[in-house]
Each structure stands twice: as C-alpha cells, then as structure tokens.
Design brief:
By secondary structure, this protein is of the alpha/beta class. It has eight helices and five strands, in the order H-E-H-E-H-H-E-H-E-H-H-E-H. The protein has a five-stranded parallel β-sheet with strand order 2-3-1-4-5, with helices on both faces. It is globular, with a radius of gyration of 23 Å.
Length: 227
C-alpha cells in the first residue's frame, strides 16, 4: 500500500509542472482569443472618400459590426453642415467622445467593429483610441486601428455633387475643402494604413483586405471574402 502511495505521489508531483504549464497556456489562449476579438478598424477620410460604403463591405468580410459616425452627430451638427457651416472643435469633441463611448461598449463585449469616421486630426483619433479600455494615451499601442481612404479632390468633388443631387447626405460639396485642409496624417508613428480609394469599391476593399492581412494578421479578412 505504501509503495502504491509513493508511486502515486511521485506521479502527481511529476505532473504538476506539466499541469501548471498547461493551465498557463490555456489562460494565455483565452486572453489572446479575447484580444483578437476586441478590435476596431476605423475607415477614415474626408467626405466622399467612401467610408460608409467600404466600411459596410469590410464589416461583412471580417464578420464585424459596422458603426457610421454620421449617425452619432447631434441634430445641431447636421443642421450646421447642411447649411454649409464647418463644425468647430466645440461641435466635434462631444461627437467624438460619444463615438469613443460606443466603441468602448462594443469592444467591452468582445465585438469586432468597423467604424466609418472622418477622424481628420491626430487628437481626434486619440479620443477614439480611448475606446480601447487598455489604451495608454500617447502610446499608439491600441486595438483601434485606422485605414485612410485616399482620394483626389476632383474625384471627391464629383462624388459629393452626385450625392447632393440625389439628396443622400447632409454634407454639401462646398465644405469639402475645409475637410481637406483639416486632414492631418503626418505622424508616421500612428501607423495609419493608406489605401487608394479612387477606384470602384470592390477594388478598394481588396486593397484594404491586403493591407490588413499584412499588418494585422489576427483579423480574419478572408472569412467571407478573399483578396
């Protein structure tokens, strides 16, 4: 009996390091899986760049949820833009903070999110980055990533004129230049991915997918589509 107990004890003691290592691995796996799910791609750019169109398509590809920043504007903001009045910082900051809070809720639920938002200035993007509860301001290490849709002024203007004629948006073409002037993407440390979005949407989507595959391999960009 004593011999049996000695053998059992030795086996248990011998297995303890393996069990501990396995539990550590499982804990790491749970945290890593959770990390992969809690991510947001902000499709950014000026009005007419295609943020909503590409954002919806990308969300479907990565099996995520799409949020349109325009839906979070106050009525007063929409009225100002409709009347050709550029938004002030006082108009934009509460809007961005509302978006930040929405991202924090979604990421807290473990959702994968695609946000279509102009995000023109670095400090605007920093507000959005705070939607990641683990983000340390100034670090740029964040689960909220940015993809810039780059389009020439002539193409943008034509798109906005068409959209205005169809009555599909509150943003008038005459505000385009104010957005172009405001766009700030000169800090390479932000890691903003840039895509030529002047072509048809499916071409732009493929470019976005290819970039995400290269720089953010944890995102399942081939889930419902392929590059």
């Amino acid at each position: 009996m004593k011999c049996f107990l000695d053998v059992s004890t030795c086996l248990i003691i011998g297995l303890l390091p393996i069990t501990a290592a396995f539990l550590t691995f499982l804990t790491y796996l749970v945290h890593w899986t959770s990390y992969l799910r809690r991510i947001c791609i902000v499709v950014m750019g000026v009005s007419g760049a295609g943020k909503s169109t590409i954002g919806v398509m990308l969300a479907e590809v990565i099996n995520g949820r799409f949020l349109d920043a325009d839906d979070y504007h106050s009525q007063s903001n929409k009225d100002k833009m409709k009347n050709g009045i550029p938004l002030s910082e006082e108009d934009r900051i509460p809007w961005l903070e509302t978006l930040r809070d929405a991202l924090r809720v979604s990421l807290g639920k473990g959702e994968t999110v695609v946000l279509g938002c102009s995000a023109l200035q670095k400090h605007y993007r920093d507000i959005l980055r705070c939607g990641d509860a683990n983000y340390i301001p100034g670090s740029n290490v964040c689960n909220i990533k940015f993809v810039l849709l780059s389009v020439g002024a002539e193409v943008l203007s034509a798109r906005l004129e068409k959209r205005a004629a169809e009555g599909k948006h509150f943003m008038p073409p005459k505000l385009l230049q104010s957005q172009i002037d405001l766009l700030q993407i000169d800090d390479e440390s932000e890691g903003i991915l840039k895509v030529d979005a002047s072509l048809e949407p499916h071409h732009t989507l493929k470019s976005v997918q290819a970039l995400l595959s290269s720089y953010l391999p944890s995102i399942p960009v081939h889930l419902n589509g392929s590059v």
